[in-house]
TrEMBL record:
Residue ranges annotated for the Methyltransferase type domain, each copy included: 50-149
Taxonomic source organism: Psilocybe cubensis (Psychedelic mushroom)
Name of this protein: Methyltransferase type 11 domain-containing protein
Segments traversing the membrane: none
Keyword Transferase (UniProt): yes
InterPro entries: Diverse_substrate_MTase, Methyltransf_11, SAM-dependent_MTases_sf
Domain of life: Eukaryota
Record-linked SUPFAM superfamilies: S-adenosyl-L-methionine-dependent methyltransferases
A GO biological-process term: methylation
Amino acid sequence: MSTPKVHKIAQEGFGAGTNELYDRIRPSYQPPALDFIRESLKGVGPFNILEIGSGTGIFTRAILADPKWNPLIKELKAKEPSAGMREVFSRTVKDERVSTSEGFFHDTGIEDEWADLIVIAQAFHWCPDYDAASAEFDRVLKPTGTLAFIWNLEDRDGAPWVAKVRDLYELYEQGTPQFRHEKWRATFDTPSYQKAFEPPREKQWTYILQGTKEGVVDRASSKSYIAVLPDTKKKEVQEEIRKIVDADSEKRWIDEPKGIFEYPYKCWVVLAHKKQV
């Protein structure tokens, strides 16, 4: 039996009707992380960029809006298996250098040695075959190419209420390959990765977003495994999240009358360069 191209929960949880919430509530990417990726590129540009698992375009829009990144983009090809996400991407990303189409980690449809950079934002934990993906990255990247993975996640160490909210919704993961389990690290032990790439480099940042109670509820609701819950169970989880946020007396307020408080987050970037022959 062949490995499915897309996990069943991802298909359902990121299916039609879920993507507007995802696009609205998921955070963008912080300048230090974008700088770290940009500064890792070899050459002076402009660069061909392949973004796999491009979703609704959150990362794409971040680098298009970044004044240091924008002039370095020669062409960006976004590959995304979800038709619903591609539809939101097409509506929200307006740049003649950017295109979007169906594609997968192990089957991008990109020509050999086209990309200066492959970037995978908030998606690689869904990869079903790390060795096949690494072989595809090797094929598509130029000899001087860079591979970058980036994730944002609520920082459970940043506030007690964040830890409690995560403890609640993570009960419903249903065995899905979430970033926090770090199974994606097995990539770096595969034959295809070790043949083609240098050991990875990693960096982390903590940062603060502006949060509201309903924003925290929406953020949890945008997770694939919460999105697929029956409506009654989903509403139950959402109400429990509201109670956790309300009960925490240690929230750091930004604007208490407006209900705006600090929402601790963390960002991870993992980079790899092709081996120089």
